[in-house]
Specification:
The complex is a heterotrimer.
Chain A (H helix, E strand, L loop, with lengths): L10 H10 L4 H7 L3 H23 L1 H4 L10 H13 L2 H11 L6 H25 L8 H4 L7 H28 L2 H9 L1 H21 L17 H27 L1 H4 L4 H33 L8 H27 L2 H25 L13 H24 L14
Chain B lengths: L3 H31 L4
Chain C lengths: L2 H19 L17 E6 L8 H9 L30 E5 L9 E5 L8 H5 L5 E3 L5 E3 L9 H5 L6 E2 L9 E2 L5 H4 L7 H5 L5 E5 H14 L19 E4 L20 H41 L9
Parallel strand pairs in C: 1-9
Antiparallel strand pairs in C: 1-8, 2-3, 4-5, 6-7
Classes of the chains: A mainly alpha, B mainly alpha, C alpha+beta.
């Protein structure tokens, strides 16, 4: 701490700098009174109240889950979509650190932070859904169901959280200005990145593999032995698109931090990611059709579920594929950013289709989430956003710390 | 389809054909995406 | 079937169970893939009259809530909609139209099928389900974390969950009266109370023989299929029926593939990824580093030229 030019008088000043961004307490609090924060406060209050009800009265009081629909919004969206949308971490980390595309360095830290917080809040969402969340460590330490794909998912998410945390530690140690720790953790980057890609490959695909055990329950147009591959590839698409979407959002919200960035440079990066997303989307489109061919379910295309499938594949896979490609040709970052939203919605749609919408497609009674399930989901997302904002406002994520010249 | 074997052959050939078509389409797509406009 | 024959089979079953387990130690022996010793249940759907005494007996034996009085079960209005097993009912009887108009309706009792290779056991990440050497598939609530993946996996829509319990929610399903059958002369409650002797408890292999005999000796009375013989890789609970099973609420699309096989392919690829990925990724990294070193050394030898792009 002695190296920092503005030397702290005592630990209170250090704390004030770290917590209140160097502002006097009163000014900091006044700065918190914004419309967004007000809405966030309401959401958080409702969420805390619902959490209380959930954990004291059980799942029946707060969800519409049934014996035929054991998984609902909290698994279908919070867990499945959350993990897919947090995939930007391993995609960007490998792009920069393993494949050497150093230009993308400015996007790595936000992507890793999104990845870490994304997975962390997925686990929070999972704790709402589990019947006995306090037993979450059981598959790690108490009883091992090694034939279960879910066992794999549990282990990998736990390990991956650790790896993402390690990958984010450089930013934390720069913030705390602990030079030795910063240096030490920097050596871990490559290993952590490689391990992170391995873990991501396995658990992104494992989340799809979960549904291999439900051949009669997931609609045949979505059920294929290749679900694991589809989930992995679409996770890459989701990761790329989220990084694009977030960079646009961050550059607006955290304007003061990024004012030194060259906007043209960032636009080039965004367009580059758009091209990558376009290529992967094209591949994914082809794979989906191979899946239909493999299952020999061409006749099902002309049923209501079939039209829904066509909508997903043409409207949310092929369309964004061409929009991205067109945007790349026209060098329009704006179109890339618009398309990223469409793409993210498409991945969400796909995950919901497999886990909820076409699940038990033979049953007449359908599941629809209760308002409290939506409210808890929004609560978790909001807390995630608030955490992201807290960290980005303090730690060197969108900007470099001048004391640590770009170690990249 | 008389026998399972014929059935498998038929399935496989459709998939291989599709894979070849997709490869060609991919090449065309790559060229489309790489050409710069404006 | 005459009373004496049924009694004989039940006695043989009870002896069989005790014979298998009599000298067993406290810890479980590894269960062979298919065991000749497994006990089973056979339900003859031509005999069931829909009295639902089995439902009462099951709730009684398992101390399930809202048991009610035995007389209450004579109310046939429950047949107006198709029920499934839930947290308070390990077994349900549903009514279906008769084989021929004007005939007796066909009543179908559903409960856990006690599969050879249960999907629930394969799915469970804490191994809360186990196939006992005696045949029944049992659930251990002491390790269950409540993820409900077993409910997703079961092709027969068996496991139910106590969603309204905040602190000790658990999966609920038929146990084939495991504790009872482990005792001398023990018979599952449903089989014992059935006044029509529609349910037989015996060694599963004996039940297959019995079922085949019934079908062969009564041409036209039964559909030539024993449900559970091969479905999901084989189950300990078997059915024979006067009507095609699809018309009686049975899943016709359950193939003979045991459910654990469905994920074996994926699970076996895990070690491959763990082995190959590091080499591939470190290879990419090494290639990248080399390329950067070359670029640096080229820059060092020549004066740097200004390039348009940053």
């Amino acid at each position: 701490m002695a190296e920092y030019p503005g030397k702290y008088t005592d630990w209170q000043a250090w704390l004030a700098d770290k917590l209140f961004m160097g502002l006097p307490f009163g000014q900091y609090v006044r700065g918190l009174i914004t419309p967004f924060n007000f809405i966030a406060l309401i959401i958080v209050c409702v969420g805390v109240a619902l959490a209380w009800i959930r954990f004291t009265q059980g799942l029946a009081a707060t969800t519409n889950l049934t014996n035929d629909y054991p998984w609902g919004l909290w698994i279908g969206f919070d867990v499945l979509c959350g993990v897919a949308l947090a995939a930007g971490g391993f995609v960007l980390a490998s792009t920069v650190h393993l494949f050497g595309l150093r230009d993308y360095y400015p996007l790595v830290r936000p992507a890793i932070l999104t990845g870490f917080l994304g997975y962390f809040f997925v686990v929070v969402g999972l704790c709402f859904d589990l019947g006995r969340p306090w037993r979450l460590p059981y598959p790690m330490a108490v009883s091992f169901g090694v034939t279960s794909v879910m066992f794999l998912v549990g282990w990998h998410v736990a390990l991956y959280l650790t790896v993402q945390f390690l990958e984010f530690c450089p930013a934390i140690f720069e913030w705390l200005n602990t030079k030795k720790l910063r240096k030490w953790v920097g050596y871990l980057t490559i290993g952590a990145t490689v391990f992170g890609v391995i873990l991501s490959t396995l658990h992104q695909s494992a989340l799809g593999a979960l549904f291999l055990l439900a051949p009669g329950k997931v609609h045949p147009l979505w059920y294929t032995p290749w679900i694991p591959v589809f989930f992995f590839i679409s996770a890459i698409i989701a990761g790329l698109s989220m990084v694009i979407f977030e960079s646009m959002l961050s550059h607006r919200v955290f304007h003061s931090q990024v004012k030194d960035h060259d906007p043209a440079h960032v636009e080039r990066l965004v367009i580059g990611l758009g091209k990558a997303a376009s290529v992967v989307l094209f591949t994914y489109f082809c794979l989906k059709w191979l899946g239909v061919a493999h299952g020999q379910h061409w006749d099902l295309l002309f049923t209501p579920y079939g039209y829904w499938f066509l909508l997903e594949v043409f409207g949310f896979v092929l369309l964004p594929c061409f929009l991205y490609a067109h945007a790349v040709r026209k060098r329009s970052a704006r179109l890339v950013q618009f398309t990223s939203v469409l793409t993210v919605l498409g991945i969400v749609l796909n995950r919901l289709n497999v886990s909820i919408i076409t699940f038990q497609w033979n049953l007449d009674e359908r599941y629809f989430p209760r308002w409290s399930e939506f409210a808890v989901t929004i609560f978790i997302v909001t807390v995630g956003l608030l955490t992201f904002r807290w960290i980005v406002n303090r730690m060197p994520v969108l900007r470099d710390d001048p004391r640590y010249p770009a170690a990249h | 389809m008389q026998t399972l074997h014929e059935y498998m052959m038929a399935t496989k050939s459709v998939e291989y054909l599709m894979a070849v078509i997709f490869l060609g389409a991919f090449i065309l797509f790559w060229r489309f995406a790489s050409r710069k406009e404006g | 079937m005459s009373t004496s024959r049924r009694d004989f089979l039940n006695l043989a079953a009870a002896v069989g169970v005790v014979g298998v387990t009599g000298t067993r130690r406290a810890h479980a022996e590894p269960v062979r893939r298919v065991s000749e010793d497994w006990m089973g249940m056979l339900t003859d759907l031509t005999l069931c009259v829909g009295c639902r005494k089995c439902e009462w007996a099951c709730k009684d034996a398992n101390e399930l809530p809202n048991k009610g009085l035995l007389e209450d079960y004579e109310d046939t209005s429950v047949f107006e909609r198709k029920r499934r097993m839930d947290a308070e009912n390990f077994t349900v009887v549903n009514r279906y139209p008769p084989v021929e108009p004007g005939g007796n309706p066909v009543d179908v009792k559903k409960q856990c099928m006690h599969c050879f290779e249960p999907a629930c056991a394969s799915a469970c990440l804490v191994a809360a389900f186990r196939k006992t050497p005696e045949g029944p598939v049992l659930y251990n609530e002491n390790v269950c974390i409540g993820c409900r993946y077993c409910m997703i996996a079961c092709p027969f829509h068996v496991p139910a969950y106590t969603y309204d319990d905040p602190y000790t929610p658990k999966v609920m399903k038929c146990t084939m009266c495991f504790e009872r059958i482990m005792q001398e002369g023990g018979v599952p409650a449903c089989a014992k109370i059935c006044p029509e002797e529609a349910i037989t408890f015996a060694k599963r292999s004996d039940l297959i023989t019995l079922a085949r005999e019934k079908i062969t000796h009564n041409p036209g009375k039964y559909v030539e299929h024993i449900y559970g013989e091969y479905e999901a890789g084989g189950t300990c609970w078997l059915y024979i029926s006067p009507k095609p099973f699809e018309e009686l609420g049975f899943r016709a699309d359950v193939s003979a593939t045991p459910y654990p096989e469905l994920t074996k392919g994926f699970l076996s690829s895990v070690p491959l990824v763990l082995t190959i990925w590091p080499a591939l990724l470190m290879g990419a990294y090494a290639f990248t580093k080399r390329r950067e070193e070359l670029a640096k050394s080229v820059e060092a030898k020549q004066p740097p030229t200004r390039s348009e792009e940053g």
